[in-house]
Amino acid sequence: MSVRQAPSLPIPNRKSTMAQQPETRISATTPRLDVAHLAKTYGSGEKSHTVIEDLTFTVDAGEVVCIVGPSGVGKTTLLKCLAGLHPASSGRAAIDGRTISGPPPEMALVFQDYNRSLMPWLTVRKNLILPLRHLKLPAAELKERCDSALAAVGLSHAHNQYPWQLSGGMQQRVAIARALAYRPEILIMDEPFASVDAQTRFDLEDLCLKIRKDFNMTILVVTHDIDEAVYLADRVVVLGSRPARVLKVVDVDLPAPRDQITTRSLPEFARQRTEVLSLIKRPA
Amino acid sequence: MSVRQAPSLPIPNRKSTMAQQPETRISATTPRLDVAHLAKTYGSGEKSHTVIEDLTFTVDAGEVVCIVGPSGVGKTTLLKCLAGLHPASSGRAAIDGRTISGPPPEMALVFQDYNRSLMPWLTVRKNLILPLRHLKLPAAELKERCDSALAAVGLSHAHNQYPWQLSGGMQQRVAIARALAYRPEILIMDEPFASVDAQTRFDLEDLCLKIRKDFNMTILVVTHDIDEAVYLADRVVVLGSRPARVLKVVDVDLPAPRDQITTRSLPEFARQRTEVLSLIKRPA
Amino acid sequence: MRNPAIRNWVIGAGTPVLLLIIWWFLSADSTDPFFPPLETILVRFQELWLFEHFQSDVLLSLGNLFLGFAMAAVAGVALGFATALVPPVRWMIDPLIHFLRGIPPVALVPIFISLIGFGTQMRVTSIALAALFPTMIATVDGIRSVSNDLLDVAKVYRFSRKERVVNVLLPAAMPQIFSGLQVSLQVAFIVMIASEMLGSSQGIGAMTLLAQQSFMTADMWAGILLLGVIGFLVNVLFSLLKRKVLSWYIGSRRMARAA
Amino acid sequence: GGSGPAAAPAADGTTTLKVGTIGIGSDAGIRLAADKGYFKEQGLNVEISVIANPPAGIAAAQSGQIDLTYTPSIPLLNALSQNVPLKIIAAADGYKDGASEGTDLLRVDDTGLLVQQGSTINRPKDLEGKSVSVPARKAQLEVTVSKLVKDDGGDPAKVNWMVLDPSSALQSLNSGRVDAASLVAPFTSKAAAEGNRLLASPGVEFFEQGAIGLWVAGANTVKSKEKALQGFRAAIYKANAYANAHVDEAQQLSAEITKTDLDVVKSGAVNYWPEDVRIEDIERANKNLAELGFLSEPVKLPADVIFGK
Amino acid sequence: MKASIRPYAFSALGIAGALVIWQVLAVAKAAGNALPSATEVFATLATILGTGTFWSALGATLAIALLALAMAALAGVVLGLLIGSFESVRYATLAVLEFLKPVPPIVILPLAVLVLGPTAEMALFLVVFGCLLPIVMQTVDGVQGTDPVARDTARSYGMGQGEILARVVLPSAMPYIGTAMRVAAPAALVVTVVAGLLGGGPGLGQSIYQAQAAGDYASLYALVIVLGVLGLLFQGATRLAERRVLHWHESYREVVR
Ligand SMILES: Nc1ncnc2c1ncn2[C@@H]1O[C@H](COP(=O)(O)OP(=O)(O)OP(=O)(O)O)[C@@H](O)[C@H]1O
Ligand SMILES: Nc1ncnc2c1ncn2[C@@H]1O[C@H](COP(=O)(O)OP(=O)(O)OP(=O)(O)O)[C@@H](O)[C@H]1O
Ligand SMILES: [Mg+2]
Ligand SMILES: [Mg+2]
């Protein structure tokens, strides 16, 4: 049940996806993810409903960025635009300078409704394999990817169970494992730790930092938990309502190997979280 | 949507329930809630499954006690025993020295599955009234109770809506309002703020402290959020698994009028939370 | 009896047995021409169905039933997918389908008799056509109600069209397809009987109606008994299949309920 | 069920009788009785309803849902053999005495066995192994055609019987889906008009003479409405006599009842409405049924099976 | 605007196409004279609609179907609540109900005709038999499916058994009852027609039988068309009623968020 048994190197190699993409592609000046004047309106005509209006921020390669903001502000909507599921109404979202027009192959998304994003008719392992099918990987690599992803989230023992046989928190972790097994370069997660208990949450937060370090993955996380945002992020994007706009991008200056107990008791940590907190508490 | 519009005195009088119970009943030595060697086993024979084994702690009148512990340890089970929904397998739970054998009239319970505990076919107001019907209150008092309870959780405008027309956080607040309208002396809440956004969460936490102060209500809260537990509680009961047992009862010594920003930045706060955290992080 | 599980089992198995015993003794000396003794009915049941007419009538009826149902199942699912996935097809045949579905399936039998005649062909066609609609409509509903979240997952992980149909839409719609199939099976059974009663001299339905019309009440009761047993068994078989195919669905439902 | 509230005469002294018919040409008899006021003369108010087939009518009469029903003698004998308590009240249709000796049987028998003009079937024995349509199994036409086959030295068990309603039967005969069709008026004459050949007239050859179609009541009705049934019998026989005397008028009614062209009706058999039921005519059918194996043994007819005899 | 018209255009095309194919097949005598042409059928339909017998048959069909449906609904819900609430009753009836559930009323039609005759009572009996069990079973499922959290909530606020049954169990079984009624209403019509067609009971089924027996194919088709329309109306009406009663249920919620 616990994540602590995770092996030291959960995702030892990602050659198959990396090999296809030259390392030179990321220039120093182009941010990995670039959201510029993004707007999103649902519906049209009378019933239209503008959720996002003129949102701008960037995420650099290898960065962890957290997005916080009140419920219903449009965080999920933003992520869906980034994942190419919804077209932006105006402005643009781009990866390495390329405007996103459909699901980008180098990106994986962990959905907010984890329990509705897993296929209930497939076992955990098959859920992990499903998105990998069309990569035509050799069976050994398929197995290796599943095993290491499941080990990373501490679910090695559950690989033959069905998602609905697991607790909410475990399902959440399966959804994360599926994204890990896909070995994306950019990982986007929508409130990924909302329904796990405190201890598992800490472990998953640390896993998140670990994969960033090991693979230089770019990670974007939406969360309601300000402590979590400050603990995880290099930068926190604070959104205000409505329509959604960036209240402030807070740079988090906490020393690099973060630790649940020591980092969280630093006075600097308290200062940073108070800053984000007062942004949120302030009437929008 | 926000709680901030709550009137200063959400629950101005509670004479109808208080009148039935003499004030003298609480002696200085009998704790309000007394859990002694409580054990709970589900099922019988082969399939039996002991969730709680020998749990002991007390809650004094007017205290706020938080219970933290890993997922699945048996927190909900414990609350259901206290609420008289499940009989204890051995040991006992008592209110003012009376062993609990059925739902005690002076207690209200806010369920973890808030969305399943609201009746979807009733409007918010009717959901609030449902448990009050058999009290045979005059219509004016019924109305007054609903109005003040809804105002307290900042949902006055939503009284004619159906629960499913509200967001998760708002539903949670309806469930809390229902408990408030019942005017219990003891309020038990199971992860009550799990699905509300940070800002509303702060407001609800403060509401919780306010009703405790205004009505000397005894409050027991299960939460996954250690910061929340420390912020709210006079004492934090840390549970370890399995079967569930008390790892430690941490006394929280934070100054009385607590405030989201100042209290949370106190060094004492950091110390307390680190203490609970390390109890949780320590392999059980 | 103290153990509730055993007690429930005894009550569950005991009541039907008790009812049968009551029927047996109450009807034992019956001279009422319409309610012959259960013993007589069982004797006739054995004489009529177990040997004499087993092949000529029982197997014939069942064969028609399964053939018609199988055709309806395959065509229903295929048409359902075509309808749900190709909007112009849906717009074109939706009103027709809904109109045809409104017609009581048995009322179509006289029309088929006049068009195709009265042979096995007519019976199978009637069964297949009448049983087509429930499956087809359930398939369309099933596909349309596949959650957007799953479709989004398919998009994010860039499934091909075929992968989307085979690995997402079909399994996700399966529970509804199966409830459609179950209704289809019921309809097929009804139309099987009706087509025999209306236009044939063979089959269990025909034999039963004939027994009624020549006042052989014991034979009629035997026929009713056989039809009842077949209806029950066919349903049981189907439920077993369903339980196998949809174990994930049944499990998840049970889990959701227990939670 | 039972003999309901209609047992007592209404305030104006009339008794209501509910009668079921199957809507064939010979219903002209009862229609005349109603139209000419013969029922009213007897203090009766007769409500006619159409039932699907004789067995259903018998069931309804037995259970008291209706007072009287039309049935040919064969379903009646089937019912009597299963101890369904029934009484014959009056004759509804049948054959004149000596009808079977006539030459143009198509003119006396409203049932007919037809084959296509060029068919190789030339005598009843040829039906062995062929498909023959009947309106219902084990009912009048199957029984009567079986007797034809048997009398001709054939084995009725070798005939491939098909149950078809008359219009489908005619259509199937025309298209060759059945080799022979046993039909009743007006389909017999329709079939002949469409170029088919009459192979035999099974009805008259089986029954020879006397009443075939009968008005039958349940034993309970007989007990509770004896007076009314006497009146019914009197009115029917008066009407039957009138019909026999005014065939044109009766055929006009038949055409209306069966919704057929008058010409078709006129080209077919002339109905005969007997004015009596004789036990020997019933017994003859009874014996034939047993000989053909449709009954395991002849029914022991109760002495009072014919009302008032 | 354009996009919203297209579906209707296609629907119209579909209907027109079907009618044309029918007409061509009929005129070409593809199925002999058994297939009347569309024009002939609609002309006959117009004549039939002018006759009193049609309307009385229609009235009988509707009366039987609706009366039986109401009886089955009332009895079914009461029985279902009873069976669902008491475990021993549930076990006692389980085997019998499970056996009878997949047995369609047409199976006992011969018996019903034999005992009750070709009457409205017979039709009524068959329809009640056909509709009762699904309603009972669904109600039992509904009682069983009552969310334990909702029950516990009611209990924790000190509500009594009767109050819980009336205010929590019954409302939460309503969607199941609604589903049963949605299935039962068209089924009631079907069984009424079957009772007329095969059992000689009054109503449109009997009219169809008579049209078939008389070889009046145009009337046969016209009557079947009437039944199709009637079936649609039944489905529509139950859906509407269900939507009104169950507006709060997931499947009928008007999305607000
Ligand atoms: N498909 C849709 N069509 C129309 N409106 C939508 C759609 N999806 C979301 N919305 C609306 O957009 C707004 C933002 O929703 P979104 O889910 O992005 O919020 P969120 O910030 O993720 O909230 P939460 O923290 O509760 O998950 C809401 O008002 C919602 O009602
Ligand atoms: N009715 C029941 N019958 C049998 N076992 C149960 C029942 N309810 C809960 N359990 C089991 O008891 C254990 C404790 O469950 P409980 O819901 O009390 O945990 P919890 O601490 O509230 O967890 P969470 O933080 O996830 O809400 C679990 O292993 C669960 O599977
Ligand atoms: Mg969201
Ligand atoms: Mg819990």
TrEMBL record, chains A, B:
SUPFAM superfamilies, sorted: P-loop containing nucleoside triphosphate hydrolases
Residues annotated as domain ABC transporter: 33-266
Keywords tagged on the record: ATP-binding, Nucleotide-binding, Transport
InterPro entries: AAA+_ATPase (IPR003593), ABC_transporter-like_ATP-bd (IPR003439), ABC_transporter-like_CS (IPR017871), ABC_transporter_ATP-bind (IPR050166), P-loop_NTPase (IPR027417)
Keyword Kinase appears in the UniProt entry: no
GO molecular function terms attached to this record: ATP binding; ATP hydrolysis activity
Residue stretches spanning the membrane: none
Pfam families given in the database record: ABC_tran
UniProt xrefs under Gene3D superfamilies: P-loop containing nucleotide triphosphate hydrolases
Span list, region Disordered: 1-24
SMART domains named among the record's database cross-references: AAA
Biased composition (Polar residues): 14-24
PANTHER family in UniProt: ALIPHATIC SULFONATES IMPORT ATP-BINDING PROTEIN SSUB (PTHR42788:SF13), TAURINE IMPORT ATP-BINDING PROTEIN-RELATED (PTHR42788)
Name of the protein in question: ABC transporter
Organism for this UniProt entry: Paenarthrobacter aurescens (Arthrobacter aurescens)
Automatic annotation (TrEMBL), chain C:
CDD domains: TM_PBP2
Keywords for this protein: Cell membrane, Membrane, Transmembrane, Transmembrane helix, Transport
Subcellular localization, as worded in the UniProt entry: Cell membrane
The keyword Cell membrane appears for this protein: yes
Transmembrane parts of this sequence: 9-26, 65-86, 98-118, 124-144, 165-193, 220-241
InterPro entries documented for this protein: MetI-like, MetI-like_sf
Signal peptide range in chain numbering: none
Topology term for the membrane: Multi-pass membrane protein
Origin superkingdom: Bacteria
Annotated ABC transmembrane type-1 domain residues: 58-242
Similarity remark: Belongs to the binding-protein-dependent transport system permease family.
UniProt name for this protein: Nitrate ABC transporter permease
Organism expressing this protein natively: Paenarthrobacter aurescens (Arthrobacter aurescens)
Gene transcribed to yield this protein: ssuC_3
TrEMBL record, chain E:
Transmembrane spans: 42-58, 65-86, 106-133, 183-205, 217-234
Protein name, UniProt field: Binding-protein-dependent transport system inner membrane protein
PROSITE patterns: ABC_TM1
Organism: Paenarthrobacter aurescens (Arthrobacter aurescens)
Entries under InterPro entries matching the protein: MetI-like, MetI-like_sf
Source organism phylogeny: Bacteria, Bacillati, Actinomycetota, Actinomycetes, Micrococcales
UniProtKB keywords: Cell membrane, Membrane, Transmembrane, Transmembrane helix, Transport
Topological category with respect to the lipid bilayer: Multi-pass membrane protein
Database matches in CDD domains: TM_PBP2
Subcellular location: Cell membrane
ABC transmembrane type-1 domain residues: 58-238
SUPFAM superfamilies, A to Z: MetI-like
PANTHER family registered for this protein in UniProt: ALKANE SULFONATE ABC TRANSPORTER-RELATED, MEMBRANE SUBUNIT, GLYCINE BETAINE_CARNITINE_CHOLINE TRANSPORT SYSTEM PERMEASE PROTEIN OPUCD
Family: Belongs to the binding-protein-dependent transport system permease family.
A GO cellular-component term linked to this record: plasma membrane
GO BP terms: transmembrane transport
